Amino acid sequence: MSGALGVIALLALLAGGVPIGVAMGLVGLVGMALLLGPEPALIKSSVVFFETVTRFELGVLPLFLLMAHLCFAAGASRDFFSAAASVVGHRRGGMALATIAGCAGFGAVSGSSLATAATMGQIGLPEMRRRGYSTAFAAGAVAAGGTLGSLTPPSGALIVFGIIAEQSIGRLFTAAIVPVLTQALLYMAAIVIVCRIRPGIAPPSERLSWRERGAAILRVLDLAALVAVVLVGIAVGWFTPTEAASIGATLALVLCAVRKRLTWNSFCEALALTLKTSGMLYVVIIGALVFAAFMSFTGLAAQIASLVHGMNSGPVATIIMIAILLLLLGSVLDGLALMLLTAPILLPITAALGISPIWFGIFFVRTMEIGFVHPPIGINLYVMHSIAPDIPIGRVFKGVLPFLAADFLHLALLIAIPGMALALPRWLE
Amino acid sequence: MDPVNDPQVPRRGLLFYVGSAGLLCVMVVEAAAVLGRHVGMPVMGALEIVQVAIVPAACAGMLIATLRNAHAAVHLLTERLPTAAGRWLERSAGVLAGVFFAAMCGGGAWLAAEYWNTYEQSEVLHIPFRPLRLLVALTGAALAVLSVRRAFRSGRGA
Is the pTM of this model over 0.90? Predict the structure, then answer.
């Protein structure tokens, strides 16, 4: 009962515009004060506050953010897009394919859906419009492609999930690789199919010479090497995720200098943005951990788990119900709020069903990603609308529909074949 | 993009320099630790240095995010409300944030007082934890003050 009241209070505070971290922390603190007394509640919350701020593993967040900002300063987004556009841009729908590939590449250095959609939107969208693409299709491709940023390691969402669920961030990163690749392939398949059905929406354009293509590909080799070092290093155990983030940020700094993009201003800007975003994330994580502590005292998750167990519905049916719940909540809550609110409740339920927490993390972020592009919130759709205000939001919604179909198919595949996420980490171990 | 005039980029001040120093220290020490481990010259106590250096970075980051009103929030409802109601909710959110951070400060100070005479320190480099506990409690206090101040300023200035 107290757990359910806590969730209702949290939803009310979130709806009232209270910052997510503060709302979760406050509900957790007050809830624990009511359950255990003010003194234990205050001590428990303050211990969480201190331990979170002094936790060295959390250094992974600001360092990967710094790497992303430095890569952005080095021109990563434009170079990834140009390389992909030089290879497939001349084909029908080729610029949309290039956008998806560019999003996957940039997602590997940004780790954020919003950043990927906003950045690639400023590059890919004008380019597609210039070449006569349908505005709905172009905006839909960038909005959907942006979601790749959430799952592509090193992903901010996976780092937060790893911290909340106390799971290995390195294993989560490795588990995300195959789902990200298959997601990008399904988006590309959606583009090819839509262009077959309606060839007029994405006309072919001029083909670049092999020399120009080679030059464009050469320009991203250093960035690709940076991403490869970070991901391979984590996967094969050369270094921990925190160390990988340090190596990534250091290499990104070197890369910026080699590319002659490292100015005092760009360096300070990268640091300032990193501090601001990580400060925001720290507050959210502290709040989520206080809320999770409260939830564990209420026993709400255990009650729901026993209820689900009593239904004898089996893991697959439960996961489908969870997916529906997440999609419904994802249409009114943003991704971070959704994860922090539901993960502490859902994790014990899935654990009781014998579902791997690593697989659940990938499934969770994948479902959360769909929330970025499905109405009525679909934040990536609004990002597209803000980049190109002359494209009505209704057309952006329409443009994303083929990609949403690909998303649902991908989610179904992930549920039907858990090995998509679990095979690679197991094989590497 | 001009970082000096871009409202999304925090201005450079003490918080920026303290936070950046912490962040860069973490970056350099971790990278050196990896390199050292692979060439057979491990950096002793690297984790402890990282643990200490991350604190000013995290504290400065939280303060910068609060100063810039950059905390993640859901605006689905508040954006659709009449201006007066929206302002009231914004002010209430600021006060609630102040209450939460004040509680963190109070609890942090309490714990700091409890551990003050136990001479808490790290195992390898013997770095004392007292300053860290003090810094975290002070950050809680500063976050509380900034949140409440912003709440009343936004209400008055809007």
Answer: no
Give me A83's structure tokens: 């390389």
Provide the CA B121 distance to its chain's centre, in angstroms. Answer: 22
Q: Are A277 and A63 in contact (CB under 8 A)?
A: no
CA dihedral A318, A322, A323, A326 (to 10 degrees): 180
pLDDT digit string, tens, across residues A209-242:
888 888 888 888 988 899 889 888 888 888 888 8
Buried (b) or exposed (e) across B127-137, using 16+ Cβ within 10 A? Answer: bebeebbebbb
Note whether B110 contacts A43, CB cutoff 8 Å.
yes
Q: What are phi and psi of A323, to 5 degrees?
A: -60, -45
Strand ranges (DSSP E) for A189-268?
none
A242/B50 Cβ within 8 A: yes
B142: Cα within 13 Å, side-chain hemisphere: 16
Q: Any residues with CB less than 8 A from the CB of B41 and at least 6 apart, and which?
A: none
* Per-residue H/E/C for A334-393: CHHHHHHHHHHHHHHHHHHCCCCHHHHHHHHHHHHHHHHHCCCCCHHHHHHHHHCCCCCH
Q: Residues of B with CB below 8 A from A242's CB? A: 30, 50
Q: Is A20 at the interface with chain B, CB within 8 A?
A: yes
For A294-347, how does the pLDDT look when each residue is reduced to its tens digit (9 = 90+)? 988 888 777 777 777 777 777 888 899 889 888 887 766 767 778 888 888 888
